């Protein structure tokens, strides 16, 4: 077998160096994107964990609230006592001329 040169020709050393720089830059950008995605993912996981913790604490607190609510219901409010009168009087509409 014999070796045949490629139809598109050869790359110069400058073109090879430029291609290597571009590949290195692309690899760096990909690494940076992966790092940012990892940070976002960890923040999302932390937020989910915090939400689950809040829900768990809320579930633990609910039964106590219901018991307190049942205990506070036995008395009745006396509606015969009038509410405090607004010391400044009722609202009035002001027209600007």
UniProtKB/TrEMBL annotation:
Region called Disordered, residue ranges: 1-23, 36-97
Listed Basic and acidic residues bias regions: 39-66, 73-86
Protein name: WW domain-containing protein
Domain of life: Eukaryota
Organism in which the protein naturally occurs: Bracon brevicornis
């Amino acid at each position: 077998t014999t070796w045949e040169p490629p139809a598109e020709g050869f790359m110069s050393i400058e073109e090879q160096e430029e291609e290597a720089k571009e590949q290195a830059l692309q690899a760096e950008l990909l690494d940076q994107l992966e790092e940012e995605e990892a940070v976002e993912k960890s923040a999302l996981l932390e937020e989910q964990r915090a939400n689950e913790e809040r829900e768990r604490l809320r579930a633990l607190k609910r039964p106590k609230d219901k018991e307190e609510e049942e205990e506070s219901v036995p008395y009745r409010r006396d509606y015969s006592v009038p509410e405090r009168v607004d010391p400044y009087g009722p609202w009035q509409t002001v027209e600007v001329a």
